[in-house]
Amino acid sequence: MKTIVRKKYWIIAAIIVIGILSYSYIFTKPAIDYNTQVKPILNKNCITCHGGVKQKSGFSLLFRSEALGKTESGKPAIIPGDPERSGMIKRLTAKDPEERMPYKEEPLGEEEISILKQWIKEGAVWGDHWAYTPVKPVNVPKPKGALWGLFPAKKIDWVKNDIDFFIYKKLEEEELKPSPEADKITLLRRVSLDLLGLPASKELADQYLRDTTTKAYENLVDSLLSLPEYGERWTSMWLDLARYADTKGYERDDHRDV
């Protein structure tokens, strides 16, 4: 009898724990990330008038110290922890088109305003530029076992490394299935055109097709990366993006005589 009672208590306790974990998972919002969620909104809609040299109404979003400072009205536009009293949110949600921001532009969407509200509520934490942020380990999204790990996770045959787990997660989110693995000739063509912009040489192609080891593809990629054609292709692409061929200087387009 005592054993049955104990089992009932364990079952009840397990149900309570599962309920708490489920509630926490469903209803707890992840913290807003400035660089990936807030900054794109500000850059797209606000920085033109409120950043750098141009600081309309004495409000700039270029640096946190400026954004939290007093504006021409004598009040700060952002009050960390209090989005409802923050002038920035009031302007973004104003009904009067003369008051609403961005001025004479399309209003921000509900999702964008929600992100900004949550960001201010969490303290309006700024983010460092990605170039100055140390690289940190990222948790690999490996499949968890059923019922929070009480049962083993299913095995995924096509996953060969940690990057594949990220791909698997995205496929699961989009309810998609992975394509079948391409044959060696197709892989050879794809990676050669991607890295060199040209088919691989006959010698390199034959070497890869004869390689039956598990590192055949890895060896092929290393060989392609070591070729001067790889550097030429990617340097050319970077120079095109920097307008090297049609500009005088990196950031300007002054007159020049050739």
Largest sheet: 2 strands, antiparallel
Which percent bin holds the helix content?
40-55%
Average pLDDT number: 85
Helix tally equals: 11
Shape: flat
Q: Looking across the biggest beta sheet, what order are the strands in? A: 1-2
Total beta strand runs: 2
The whole-angstrom Rg is 28 Å
Distance between the termini: 99 Å
Q: In terms of quaternary structure, what is this? A: single chain
Can you write the helix and strand succession as a string?
Answer: HHEEHHHHHHHHH
What's the topology here?
Blueprint: H1 2-27, H2 34-45, E1 50-51, E2 54-55, H3 64-67, H4 87-92, H5 110-121, H6 146-149, H7 162-173, H8 184-195, H9 202-210, H10 216-225, H11 228-241
Helix pairs in contact: 2-5, 8-10, 9-10
Tell me what you see in this structure.
The structure is a single chain. The chain is an all-alpha fold. It has four domains: 30 residues; 99 residues, no CATH class; 42 residues, no CATH class; 58 residues, no CATH class. The longest helix is centred in the N-terminal third of the chain and has 26 residues. The N and C termini lie far apart (99 Å).
